Amino acid sequence: MAIYFTADEHFGHTKIMQYCKRPFDSIEEMDQTIIERHNAVVRPKDTVYHLGDFSFWNHGKYLSRLKGKHILILGNHDRLKNTKEGWLEVHQVMRLKWQGKVLWLSHYPHLVWPQSHYGSWHLFGHVHGSMQGVGLSMDVGVDANDYRPVSIEKVAEVMNQRGATAQQLKDAVDKESLKPYAKKYIWWKTPEEAVEYPQRVIAQVMNIGTFEDTQELADLVGNDVLRMVIEQAEVGQFNGTSWSYWHYRLELCEIDQVPPLPERRGLR
Asked: Who contacts 176 (Cβ-Cβ below 8 Å, separation ≥6)?
């Protein structure tokens, strides 16, 4: 029996196609596609955790067409009166343990969560593929995952890779040396908080820093670290100009072969 996670299906919600630019011609096509893709991977005895915004109404109508046993983490679009229609369990948030690893499930993305400082994983929805989350957290919503549920094994693969690359970057950078940049460019956090995620501090300077600051930072951390920052770039961290500049400067591509900016994933 496998475990899957998903979020933000918004069954029956016509306006979500416009809000999130979902590539469907009708609400019927959207609902049917999400149901078909769900059933293509989930088996009847599998457990599926839905991290909110399943549907405004008629939960039972849609659940009856989905394979698996279903647990709901409430989202802001889920109506409490509908949550008795076919759900095995309903929670506001949930702590799950799998193979010794703690997972924190919530509709909303958190900056910190229970045991995050010990390496726990946080899964969320709500943002519709517009952000990756901080640290060991992941958007499992349909907009970010080709309108399919995500298996626990895939989550583990992503988290293990993210943890390894993040640790590699942390090991390569002196946090204290980043604090002046964090204070100047990550002004909504304290420097101490910001430097816990050095990739984001460095990316922010690379994207909007002054010429002097970017040159000083490059000399401080070295090109190998800058390349790692580009490789780990999240949606919205770079504009087109800075993205092209750093690819050319770091010799990551040939002329006129700059890869596209990171973007939220959708229907393929």
From this structure: 195
